[in-house]
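FAQ
Q: What does a multi-component entry look like?
A: The components come first, one per line:
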Amino acid sequence: MKVLVPFKSVPDPNDATVAGAAASMPKSVINPFDEIAIEEALRIRERGEAAEIVGVTIGAVAVDEQIRAALAMGVDRAIRIDDTRALDPYAVARILRALIEKEAPHVVIMGKQAVDDDSNQVGQMLAGLLGWPQATFVSKIEFLDNKTRTRCTRETDAGLEVVAINLPAIITTDLRLNEPRYVSLPGLMKARRKPIEILTCDQLGVTVRPLTTVLSTSRPPKRAAGTRVDSVEGLIAKLRQEAKVL
Amino acid sequence: MSMAETLVLIELDRQQVKRPSLHAITLARQLGGDYALLVLGHGLDEIATSLVSYGASAVIVADDPALAEPLADRYAAVIVKAAQKHGAKTLLGSSSTFSKDVLPRAAALLDAPMVTDVLAIEEMDGSVLYRRPINAGSMLATVKLEGDRRVLTVRATAFEAPAADAAPCPTERFAFDAASLPNGMQFISREQRASDRPDLTEARVVVSGGRPLKDKETFERLVGGLADALGGAVGATRAAVDAGMAPNDYQVGQTGKIVAPELYIALGISGAIQHLAGIKDSRIIVAINKDPDAPIFQMATYGMVGDLHQIVPQLIELIRRA
Amino acid sequence: MLKLFETGEAVHRPKQKLNAMDFAWSDQQQELLDAVGRFASQQLNYNMIENDREGVFNHDAWKKCGDFGIQGLLVPTEYGGLGQDPLTTVAALERLGYACKDNGLLFSINAHMWTAVIPLVYNGTEAQKKKYLSGLCNGTLIGGNAMSEPNSGSDAFALATTAIKKDSSYVLNGSKIFVTNGPIADLLVVFATVDKTRGPDGITAFLVEKDSPGMNVARKLEKMGVRTSPMAEVFFENCEVPEENLLGKEGGGAFLFTRSMTWERGCILASAVGSMQRLLETCIRYANERKQGGQSIGKFQLVATKIVDMKLRVESSRQMLYHYAWLSGHRKAVYLEAAMTKLHISDSWVKCCEDAIQIHGGYGYMTEYEVERELRDAISSKLYSGTSEIQRNIIASMLGL
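Then the predicted structure of the entire assembly, as tokens:
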């Protein structure tokens, strides 16, 4: 079984500098949810259920660092679709669809959302474009019936839900699916010999234009810090009299 | 059959209308033009009737056993058919795991871009601009869309609940061939936890707990106990859910639920940016934490430094007595 | 001729003129160092205060380091290591020391690398290397050495432990003290004399596996610092070691010891440079945040001077370390440089820790703040791998005095 893991390079959400790293800010990392997807693909392979794990990302040469990190984790080969434009989720989905039609994976596992954009759309759009089943916000994945179907547990607003869907399918990962392994030095060494294929949209036969443009960004108004209270009685008094919420 | 520029997807939870999903109607009103409400499921007569006073041109009901469970492939297919039939170019919903599962798929099928978590709109040079949170809500982005079709989800807490005082509109049964619906997905089960507590996203008061609550029993006793004393809902940080103290649907934050209650009480929560993203618009925030330098104190209306294991039982006691 | 590693230049960047200084890391080195930093800061820092108080060795962290590739950094790839050159290795250890606060764990890792792994790489037979090296590299085997005795510390070669040949074994008798990793080691390099009359030329090294009959790892020794690194006395009573476990040749022990000790002196305090860097940053942060008399204490010259001096110590230590490692990588003689590096870094580290406590005032004395522990850990560096006095003697004699 071939597993395809699309991943995105995002600014490090943890903000604090990585130990000892030189100040070449901002630091980029693999989107944490996509890292979880890569980890899941690796575990599926370790269980003997997958033969090949292919990673794909869209971006300029700067994202090669994240590609090498993915390869160092254990991804077998990686594809970078060379496109430096600011894309929107729908454009990303259309580009990935072309790549998927070329690679023909049995399952696509990807993060549910990118922590910089927080749109949570690409996986579902991709499933719609391909006409494939989808399982979103997944916290557990099992393969059934000789890997023709997968049973997934989903984290929803109402609690946990279990669905069984036919393969090929799109699965998007949620936080509690697994804890990704760290990149080891032997992995890093091996990664240097793994192939990175560079493709363009032209080569994939896809021409897309993002339909969403970000005009500006701003900081939301800051909540002012309030007051300290010293006692339980004091707190209740404030909530009653001042805030009038009790 | 009515034509409407906008279709608003109404969400159901255990055969009841999920109230936050109605807030998308407020955006529909702001956008202008006719809007119809769309609801999918099975056995929807009463629900349909309950939706007729929201000023829609119609309540469109897709009622079929095949739609008893919200499977994304079927739901997206029906939504798209309904949108096309009624000439709708705009599809709205309210952010939830349901709408996030279904609407992007529908957007792709409609060849439309989608904006998630709209907080507000504005007009500029005849175009509509959408404001939405990014980077766990630490930044706001103003975006513009191209094309005549769009799919939008609103952050329910950013839009008022719509008034239900319009003259009743007709309900229409949306006919479709259930046999032609996609069949690649199968619903297996859902955990059902009955609760007397209000819904986390609708409650007036939310009491949330973090890792310092130690274990499931202590979490329920203190966080649950305080919530019950106040008639509120219970929330949790990601750390607490990861540690098994609370189920995933209690999680509040960037990748959990966004809440904006009148009163949010954070017990043993340090205030990681991903959690704060989910509570910023609460009217009053109370933080109780042992660490005086916890970031949450910078945005809490009232902060108390101390041991929650001592403070909370006292709080519960005093509230019950009053 | 054993090719232990490629010289730094051949692997990582194009040929440089040897008299040109290039202080930049190559992309590959930077990638490796960043991976070390990320791994260490995320995986190795937990339960510090409690483990230090109870003297608990973090076996889990040890295994993670093995998995990650630390213990095998210098070992040739055909034996399960990463075949890195000395400069990359010490830079990695420096980054490890920066990101990992468990000085005890690092001390155990270092003892393992310099006293067990290096001798095996240089002097092991093919069979011995195949048997032990890959486990020593991947964290499944823990190594150490047993050299010091109750009556021979600085006078290293005055050994009383004897090894008498009997049929196809050697029988060891004697007692060893200050055996780092003793309680947890799977393999110890034990030094004994086959003939006391030959003095240093009688000293021989043996590979002794744990639980060998006649080998008794006695009580764990309680220490002032690096408490998460376990240490014990080890007694040998008619302990039979098969002759295939002879490491090197009879009488070759002193040379083997000196060579591995030179490696040890140069490299063992690489992580201390990282620790000092971390301390420096902690002090700068504290000096800027802590306010007294209406201003941050960093504005007081007496505080600022201490931090400035810390910075100078960190930089000079780092440069000496890198220079030593570069020379080593270019196969230059480094006996002098190793001693100077060890002496300078240990002196610097202790002074930095003292200053860090002073800067933090009362808080610096509190266990919770994790500053006092750094000093307790650092003081050991003036004692192991040859005391500071011994290093001075070495340097003096190398200067022709």
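Q: Is there any commentary attached?
A: Sometimes. For this entry: The interface with chain A takes residues 28, 30-43, 67-70, 73, 82, 95, 98-99, 274, 277 of chain C (CB under 8 Å).
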